[in-house]
Amino acid sequence: MMHVLGAGSLGLLWLARLQQAGQPCSLLVRNQATLEAWRTADNKLIFEQQGHQSQQRANVEVATTSDTPIQTLIVATKAHSTLAAVESVRHRLSTLSQILLLQNGLGAQQQVSHAFTEQRVLYASVTDGAWQPAPRHVIWAGQGTTLIGDPLNQRAPEWLKQLDSNAVQWQWDDNIVAVLWRKLAVNCAINPFTLLFDCVNGEVPNVAGSWLDECIAELQALLTSQAVPHLDDLPTQIYEVIRRTANNSSSMRQDMHAKRRTELDYILGYACRLAQHERIPTPALNRLLYATQRRLAELDLPVD
Ligand SMILES: NC(=O)c1ccc[n+]([C@@H]2O[C@H](COP(=O)([O-])OP(=O)(O)OC[C@H]3O[C@@H](n4cnc5c(N)ncnc54)[C@H](OP(=O)(O)O)[C@@H]3O)[C@@H](O)[C@H]2O)c1
Hints:
With 304 residues, this protein is an alpha/beta fold. The chain has two domains: 2-173, Rossmann fold (3-Layer(aba) Sandwich); 178-298, Orthogonal Bundle (N-(1-d-carboxylethyl)-l-norvaline Dehydrogenase, domain 2), CATH 1.10.1040. It has eleven helices and twelve strands. The chain has an eight-stranded mixed β-sheet with strand order 5-2-1-6-7-8-11-12, with helices on both faces. Strands 4-3-10-9 form a four-stranded mixed β-sheet, with helices on one face. The longest helix has 21 residues, at 176-196. It is globular and about 55 Å long. The structure holds NADP nicotinamide-adenine-dinucleotide phosphate (NAP). The site of NADP nicotinamide-adenine-dinucleotide phosphate has 28 residues, from helix 1, strand 2, helix 3 and strand 9.
């Protein structure tokens, strides 16, 4: 039995695909009120892909109150909620439990690894796109691959094989932290600008001008200090993502419009803090962080 923690877009996408592949799963929700809402809806989960809807019945529990042991915990909360969410099920974990973290950015993974030294903690980089038009309804908007790895152990655990049979397209990666750093760099170069200038991804080069290239050069220096390999093509990769996703509104911009807390602190905030710690000058990134935080404060949104 796998447990998915967090009933948002990505949590429901994982739950739906695992259940569809016949994998027994339980969804862990935050509180009794959310559980009651599921019960009232007969625990029905709507899973939609390319306009085709299917219905499933979910097995839902309150994360904190149930005490059945958890062997495999798949954590699908936002980065800023991750440590508290995993802490809320600590009483259900044993030394045999394994934790798979699906968060974007960096920082949340390290927080959980430090707090849960007795459990094996795996990190993932997800390129699927999912969103929710309504509670208990998830749309799989973009099919991607999930890279999974363990910074402390190069062997994939056996249970990951249960993700096969088309449930989740995944690959093991021996250097998952480098993968996450690269994704963070791409997100740092695009998402904060989309928030600051309230624009789609494709407009970033125009609105940011040379500021974008200064940020990319600083990110290259920062990732070099973290031993991330093959950085020569980072600028090309970033411009390619901008071109490919030109009409997309970044998750950070979407969060701003929906008045939700953004993951800025686990993306650009993390990069700037680490640069300061490593004494790598990043004036363009610092200026971007400051400007973005000021914009969030003007909108009465949390700046961290
Ligand atoms: N969505 C995507 O397409 C996608 C793709 C790649 C990566 N990611 C990453 O995946 C992570 C999750 O993203 P998302 O889009 O799924 O976010 P989301 O829709 O906001 O879902 C997060 C869910 O976590 C729940 N949660 C928070 N704290 C909890 C707790 N203590 N106990 C139980 N549930 C808790 C939230 O419940 P409440 O509503 O009660 O707060 C919410 O349902 C993020 O790091 C994101 O960057 C997402």
